[in-house]
Design brief:
- The chain has 20 helices and 12 strands.
- By secondary structure, it is of the alpha/beta class.
- It has a 6-stranded mixed sheet with strand order 6-9-10-3-11-12, with helices on both faces. It has a 4-stranded antiparallel sheet with strand order 2-1-4-5, covered by helices on one side.
- The longest helix has about 50 residues.
- The radius of gyration is 35 Å and the shape is elongated.
Length: about 600
Amino acid sequence: MAKNRYDVDEEIKEKGSIKSFGMLFKYLIPQKKILIISGVLLAVDAFLSLINPYFIKIAIDDCIPNGDYKGIFILALLLLLASFGIWIVAKKRVYIKNNMAMEIIKKIRSDLYAHMQYLPFSFFDSRPHGKILVRVVNYVNTLTNVLANGLLNVIFDLFRMGIILVFMLSMNVQFTLICLAGVPVFVVALVFLRKMHKKAWDEYSQKQSSLNAYLQESLAGMKITQSFAREEINAGIFENLCEENKKKWMKAKYIATGIPRVVNILSITVSLIIYMLGYFQMKQGLIEIGLVIAFVSYVSNFWNPIIQLTDIYNEIVNCGVYLERIFDMIKEPLVIEDCEDASDMGEIEGNVTFENVSFKYEEDSPFILEKLNLDVKKGETIAIVGPTGAGKSTIINLLSRFYDINEGRLLIDGKDISKVTLNSLRRNMGIMLQDSFLFSGTIMDNIRYGKLDATDEEVIKAAKTVCAHRFISELPDGYNTVIKEGGSGLSIGQKQLIAFARTLICNPKILILDEATSSIDTETEIELQKGLESLLKGRTSFIIAHRLSTIKNSSRILYIADKNIKEQGTHEELLKLKGKYYSLYMAQYKFLEEI
């Protein structure tokens, strides 16, 4: 079902850096007070840092020729005070802008993670988890410098250029026009390189995402890699991905460095023209040398912010590419969500009805289930069997509303589950899927995950019911034993029993077990069945099992094939029917005899 592998570049649904920055602006609005304070500090910083050349002009043209040593001393003192003021303002400004940047980063990352909690299974099925992880961590981290420096520095540099222009115009209009003549050339160069620049960073981000996806997949499958001696092959694949990543980075950087070079050439060219023109005008006695020195200093100061703006521009282009991917994920439709008038389901009895239910996973794929009808009374235990891919897990996924049906209705106690809140629906269910995933933490915490306010006694009781208490008690720290990520260190059967206890502790009205005993040894399974007999009483239960010996006592057994229920009845009734269930049972029985 996955459409997007590590070696397939991501496709963004809606491209447009301007729209992405528009969404980013929403995160800036709550920080408007800090932005105003930062703007004032930037203005003070800009003014203090630009009076130096003007004071030098006064010193060279006025104080030194007239022997005004007192004036020189005052100018030196003022410059010293200005430097001290710049230091204080810069220190405060750096703290404020970094704090603001991290607040925005925290909010974006929190919004991403919160949104991700409600995305449908289809979202996670359709892409490598590494490509999701890179958006939440790496891409968001990349925004830090743009938020802390880029956006404020744009304001700072533009304000600084404005002040410089005031100084330059007050000194010499002709020289100022010569300086400004280079700006159109810079704009043309920027427009020419912009599309190439954006495309280069887009290609790099794709390779970075693919690299991260393969790394995550490799770590998750390391045992399989070593079991099949694939270490060298996988290392080669990773090296190729790193090489592609490096090439795209170098290409983006090569284009990015072209813009500052253009600015440098323009700055030097303008300075040379002013020096030459200034030389001829000094010979004619029209201007003094201090003005030329001060003006060239301002020319440098005028073009330096433009150079810095090009650096910021490079970061903003890069940032825009990442923003597209970040907000693409935030805008990902939830698909499975509460309708506008969704009501709380309240406590349920456990009657379940499928009315002409049809379902397919994707728009252009065939139906998995078609016109399925099923009526289950409260307290019934329904076993579901059938060939692989027939739709057994699909039935319980629809009941849990992990996916929405395409046609028909699914009712619990007569209420359409699409019209009740997801929280109230799943609060009444205990669900154990095929993947017995455990979180890092103690065994006690993992079982309590099913009911956060459960007492230690309730946790132990649930563990005893599913026959997990014995092996847990034999561990060095018992229920306080810390489980590693994914439950490594425990056998598959032990993980399954802990997951079983986690499902049962919430005392659900509807119990869903998807291959709950598939990895448990026969001896433990016999004990477990005894505990389940009392547990299943009064609950509506749906059990998917390949091991048919575990479902003999079910109220009804459904044989799913060809998109619907082909046979249903008790174990004895289906054996007498001598149909598909009978063939399946006899094949399994014969296989066990041969073993």
